[in-house]
Amino acid sequence: MDDAKLILKIIPGTKIALFHWIGPITAMDRIHNLKKIVDFCSDKDIKSVIADGRDQVPNTDIRESFNFGAMVAKVLRNYNIAVVHKFNDDNLSYIENAAIKRGATLKSFLKIEEARAWLESIPNKVD
User: Fold this and answer.
1) Residue 39 lies in a domain
2) Mean pLDDT across the stretch 37-48?
3) Residue range of the domain that includes 91
4) Residue 53: which residues within 8 A CB-CB, separation 6 or more?
């Protein structure tokens, strides 16, 4: 799946989906993307996701980020999620903290290789 701003694909040789958004992103974009990720992973029987946020330019406030993190925990409860972010990305930190506190299996990284290694080292979730 490839939009102007969205890349969603399976990493070759793995059962890991890679989500990558390029450019400005709003709270509504994030909600729509969450649905796209779930639909894509359900269709491909994927339970591990790398969300690459390094090229995102957030257009959200702290409250929206926190609320989105809570939504991630609920919607992606049956998935293992690795978030790749830029150093000192406070926006993604709020999402991560809210999701983890609500039971999400989620960890953040600065490099995709580290995220992939972590996902490959933990068991897949089951429904």
Assistant:
1) yes
2) 96
3) 6-121
4) 21, 83, 84, 85, 86, 89, 92
* In a domain? residue 126: no
Residues 6+ away with beta carbon under 8 Å from 122:
80, 105
Which helix or strand (DSSP H or E) is residue 96 part of?
helix 90-101
CATH number of the domain enclosing 91: 3.30.750.24
pTM: predicted TM-score of the whole model, two decimal places: 0.90
Percentage of the chain exceeding pLDDT 90: 71
Q: Alpha-carbon distance 3 to 102, whole Å?
A: 31
Q: Which residues contact 16 (CB under 8 A, 6 or more apart)?
A: 10, 46, 48, 49, 50, 116, 119, 120
